Amino acid sequence: MAVRISGVEIPLNKRGIIGLTYLYGIGKNISKEILNYVKIDVNKKVKDWTDEETSKIRQYISNNIKIEGELRSEIQFNIKQLIDIGCYVGIRHRKGLPLRGQKTKNNCRTRKGKKKTVANKRKVIK
After folding, report:
1. Where would a tag sit more exposed on the chain, N or C end, judged by fewer CB atoms within 10 A?
2. Nearest to 12 by CA among 55, 58, 44, 59
3. In terms of Cα–Cα distance, which of 14, 23, 117 is closest to 65?
C-alpha cells in the first residue's frame, strides 16, 4: 500500500524525513518539524507508518503548510507582481536574465538560452 499525500506518492522504502521531501515545498527541516509534531521517529521507514500516523501527517500538512500546486501558483503570482510593478528583479525576469547579480558576459547560458551568434561588420574595401 503506497502512502499518498496531496497527490504525490511517497516511496515506501525511504526514511520518513526523506520521504516527505518528495512533496514540493517540503525540505529536510520542515519534514523533521512535521514528524516531531506528530511524534513519529525521524528514522522510521514510510512503510512502517500506521494509517493513524499517515492521517495525522496529512492533517498537519493541509492545515499548516503550503505545498504543491498552491505553493507553485503563489510563487508565479509573486513573480508576475514583480514584473507588473517594474522593479529591477521584475525587469530581469521579463528579459530572461539572471536575477541575483551574476555576470552575464560569459556565463548564464541556462537563463539566456542557446548562444545567438552576431556577425561582425565587414570593412569596406576601397
Report:
1. C
2. 44
3. 23
Domains with residue ranges and CATH for the chain: 3-65 (1.10.8.50), 69-112 (4.10.910.10)
- DSSP letter string, 86-108: T-HHHHHHHHT--SSS---SS--
Q: Quote the cell numbers at residue 55.
A: 492521517
Is residue 66 within 8 A of residue 74, CB to CB? The reply is yes
Residue pLDDT, tens place only, 82-117: 999 999 999 999 998 898 888 888 888 888 888 888
Q: Does pTM top 0.85 for this prediction?
A: no
The grid coordinates of residue 2 equal: 503506497
